[in-house]
Design brief:
The structure is a single chain. The protein is an all-alpha fold. It has one domain. The chain contains eleven helices and no strands. The protein is globular, with a radius of gyration of 22 Å.
Length: 276
């Protein structure tokens, strides 16, 4: 357990963007919150106010849900992007710096190394980003209770209980999204051990695989496969039921995607045992 914590701490130190970007977004959110809180015409200029009897119309609920979707979708996408820039370079960085020989001398297996890096990219990064969801809802709750009457657009943020429950729901959605990103993460890690620009190679390869069958044969099956697969994590974050992402993408597509992940896991472990 101690070696796992030490390795996660190493990943934390070597990837400052994981904290710097969320901190920057948090600072921008605080500034926006202060500007809204200090506005004397807040309710009249920016929000629809609930009726005097306290009823909430369907349009109020829909607009409140849109705000929540904007928060979860935007922060979920940020987490995915941070993971996308992390996986293609994490193993490549150790090879280029020569630190792979140091870790090879430690009692740390290649399997444990891969699992720690997957845990950092698919669990730690979403956990850090989830704090933005918590503070966004918390500031909206403060904004709601600081006004004379409840703001209709912030009907969901009417209590602290919702703030905590929404944060927990986001974490669960990100766990599902992480599982759906696993084959892609493994593929990026495998490619990164053989090329110097893995992200560029991966993007070019996907572009070629998507458009060459269309240009040569007019076949859209591979293009549709990538479209369905790439939308899986976002579907898990935004859909009412995150587990509906798999049947929505198609079981055959998901099975092929999972098989690619198994091949990538095998290849990445094989590549990690050789030092060029």
């Amino acid at each position: 357990m101690g070696s796992i914590i030490a390795m996660l701490h190493k990943e934390w130190i070597e990837n400052p963007l994981v904290t710097r970007i969320p901190l920057f977004i948090f600072a921008c959110g605080v500034l926006l919150f202060i500007s809204l809180l200090s506005s004397s015409n807040l309710q009249h200029n920016m929000f629809f106010q609930m009726s005097v009897n306290g009823s909430v119309s369907d349009i109020h609920l829909e607009m409140g849900d849109d705000i929540n979707m904007l928060i979860t979708g935007g922060i979920g996408l940020l987490s995915i992007l941070l993971g996308t820039q992390y996986f293609p370079r994490t193993l490549r960085k150790e090879r280029s710096e020569g630190s792979i020989m140091f870790w090879r001398s430690m009692p740390v297996s290649d399997v444990k190394t891969h699992l720690v890096k997957l845990a950092f990219g698919l669990l730690v990064i979403p956990l850090v980003c989830s704090s933005l969801v918590f503070f966004a809802d918390f500031m909206l709750w403060l904004l709601n209770v600081s006004t004379e009457q409840q703001l209709a657009l912030l009907f969901r943020q009417a209590s602290l209980a919702y703030v905590v429950l929404h944060w927990g729901e986001f974490l669960l959605r990100m766990i599902v999204a992480g599982l759906l990103l696993l084959p892609l993460a493994l593929t990026a890690m495998a490619i990164s051990q053989k090329v110097n620009s893995p992200l560029l190679v991966l993007l070019v390869a996907i572009y070629a695989l998507r458009w060459m069958p269309i240009a040569l044969f007019g076949d859209y099956h591979i293009d549709q496969f990538f479209s369905e697969i790439f939308y899986l994590p976002l579907h898990a974050i935004l859909a009412p039921n995150p587990f509906s992402a798999i049947p929505a993408a198609g079981w055959i597509n998901v099975a092929i995607y999972a098989f690619i992940g198994v091949l990538a896991w095998t290849a990445s472990l094989k590549f990690s045992r050789t030092v060029n």
